[in-house]
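Table S2 (continued). Query chain:
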Amino acid sequence: WRVIVLNDDHNTFDGVARTLSSIIPGVSLAQGHAIADKIHNTGQAIVWAGPKEPAEHYWELLNDAGLTMAPLEQG
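Corresponding output:
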């Protein structure tokens, strides 16, 4: 399952990076900035991929943190 964050007009670049690094295991703040850059430049990025249950958990946490999420995609 793929967790995808979409670009939007209300989250800051730094806010997205900080949210990703605080929620997704193994994502540093620097990696969060790289992912935020990809989201900004391409409109979206896969931020985590794996089994359905943790994917749903991360999707929910990111959504609750205010990020704009695409529906979960089966990988």
